[in-house]
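Dear H.,

Thanks for agreeing to be a second pair of eyes. The structure we're designing against is below in token form, covering all 152 positions.
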């Protein structure tokens, strides 16, 4: 083959791609990058503030301590409730059979605590609830606890 037989060089790739897909995008200016960074930081700080304040408002937690089933019609559960000492709370406790079916259910009222009651300055107290069951229970647990609305 001689040099005359070689085909002509194809158009540069960047030109043909630019014709097909459009030209290159412009990079963000430093001012635009700075604005996006500041906005992202503000959103992140706002989100963290929301998380920290929302967890402070749901101020009741519980921990199962133990249970007993004295007979086929009763279950007793011991649990700890942590809340503000001056607040009322309610806890739903349930008794379960061997197949994890609920055989007893009760809502327990937790009254305000004295500052010297329990631990943590009256925040954590131990409670015992007795639940009537329709058949033999093999366990008892706290389902949930909440602070009742003051408006009701």
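And this is the sequence the design step returned. I haven't edited it by hand at all.
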């Amino acid at each position: 083959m001689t040099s005359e037989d070689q085909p002509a060089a194809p158009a540069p790739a960047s030109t043909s791609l630019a014709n097909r897909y459009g030209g290159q995008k412009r990079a963000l200016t430093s001012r635009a990058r700075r604005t996006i960074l500041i906005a992202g930081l503000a959103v992140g700080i706002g989100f963290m503030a929301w998380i920290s304040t929302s967890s402070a408002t749901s101020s009741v937690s519980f921990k199962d301590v133990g249970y007993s089933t004295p007979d086929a019609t009763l279950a007793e559960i011991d649990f700890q409730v942590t809340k503000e000492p001056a607040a009322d709370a309610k806890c739903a406790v349930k008794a379960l059979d061997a197949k994890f079916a609920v055989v007893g259910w009760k809502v327990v009222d937790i009254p305000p605590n004295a500052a010297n009651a329990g631990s943590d300055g009256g925040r954590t107290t131990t409670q015992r609830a007795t639940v009537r069951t329709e058949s033999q229970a093999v366990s008892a647990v706290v389902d949930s606890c909440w602070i009742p609305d003051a408006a009701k």
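Two observations from my side: The beta strands are 61-71, 74-82, 89-96, 102-110, 124-132, 139-146. The radius of gyration is 33 Å.

Warmly,
E.
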